[in-house]
Structure formats: structure tokens, C-alpha cells
């Protein structure tokens, strides 16, 4: 009788252990296969709100938008935007983060916007552009991301069209190609002031990050006039990023877009 009881105990123990191991394995497998956002297929922008559960991607103040000029509120006179960029600011590094080519900056460049100071953290690129002006999609859009001491974000969006070669882009692209996940240390000075030759005319609105978690604490400044870069420079960037790394147009809803000139 004792032998039978011992045998039954062993069977129950082995069964319980096997179940627990199987359950642990299932959890581990699920964890290692978590869905991550991308720009194509089942994880493309139209699915971000589904797969990024704790994000703002289904919010009412999302970016990018199509800016219709005749529907904007015009603001003429003193600008709320002051750009303080220095030719002695250093690029720290460049990385291919799998979504874009991103240049990170050391402390130096900043902007003053709506009575607060925001410091330049990084610039990255989208091809084609995420924002539209009167329905026009540009070949490229540059995002210059600035953060204040409270963690609020102001992004300067600069559109680009194809034409003559750009010395700035020749310098930036000298660090390419970069494979997905690869990083290069740069630590060289860079003057970004050429990007703002037409900085007097720009649109502003309250929106979000254009990538998950789509946080809605972003002030957008989108310049009306595009910069010029060559076809070859556009293509070189494109070859180092996912195809069509842009988010689809979001509803303006009740937001006011201002045109500053």
C-alpha cells in the first residue's frame, strides 16, 4: 500500500512540475515575441493604437497633419520663436535605430519658444514627409527635437525638396552607411543655421510625437518654405532607413493651426 502511495505521489509531482515548466516556457516565449511597431504590415501606423496599449496613439491631438493654409489663423508681428544655434555645437553620435537615421547632439543649441527654453537633443528624418502643406507631400522631412527642463517637447519640422546639392547633407551623410542598430561616435562641430534661412514663415500647432508612444505634449513648428538638397542625398538617406518611414495623416479635430509671418 505504501509503495502504491509513493508511486502516486511521484506521478502527481512530475505532472505538476511539467505543467509549471510548460507555463513558464509559454510566458517566456510570449515575452520574447512581443509585437513591436514598424512602418509596414500588421505593425504599421494604422495598427499602432492596437499594439501600443499604453500609448496616446489613439488620441485627439495626434501628428502629423495636413496643414491647409487658408484655414490657419495668421499671426503677424513679433515671433514667439527665437533660434539660438551656434557653429560650435558638437554632434555626439549618429545611430540607425531601425526607424530612422538619428544624430544626437551635445549641449549647446537651443530655441526660446513661448517663454521657455528648449534644448536640441537630436535630429532625424522621414521619407517622404509626414506633414503636408495644402496636400503636398515633400520628398523628405527633418525633425529637430528639443526638450525643456520639464520634459515638454518642441519639434521643428523642416521640409525638403530636390534640387542643388546641400553641403550640410554632404557632411551628415559622410557618416553613412549605417546598418540597423549600428552607432558611430562623431564629436565634431556642426552649424545648423543654414536650415533656417526662411525661418520667418512657419506654422504652429499642438500635437504629438509621430512615433509610439505618440505622446501628446509636443509643440510643433513646421516651416513653410522647404530647404533644397540633391536627389542623390535624398536617396542615400532613404537607403539607410525603412521604406516609407512616415506616419499617416491624423485628424486636426478642433485644434487651431497658426501661421506666423
Q: What does this entry show, briefly?
A:
Keywords: Lyase, Metal-binding, Signal, Zinc. The protein is of the alpha+beta class and 261 residues long.
Describe what you observe in this structure:
The structure is a single chain. The protein is of the alpha+beta class and 261 residues long. The chain has one domain (55-260): Alpha carbonic anhydrase (Carbonic Anhydrase II). Helices cover 19% and strands 31% of the residues. The protein has four helices and 15 strands. It has helices spanning 2-32, 48-51, 167-172, 231-238, and strands at 66-67, 73-75, 81-84, 90-96, 101-105, 110-113, 116-126, 132-133, 140-147, 153-162, 183-189, 202-207, 218-223, 227-229, 258-260. Strands 2, 3, 4, 5, 6, 7, 9, 10, 11, 12, 13, 14 and 15 form a 13-stranded mixed β-sheet that branches. Strands 1-8 form a two-stranded parallel ribbon. Strand 4 (90-96) and strand 5 (101-105) form a beta hairpin. The longest helix is centred in the N-terminal third of the chain and has 31 residues, at 2-32. Mean pLDDT is 88; it is low at 1-33.
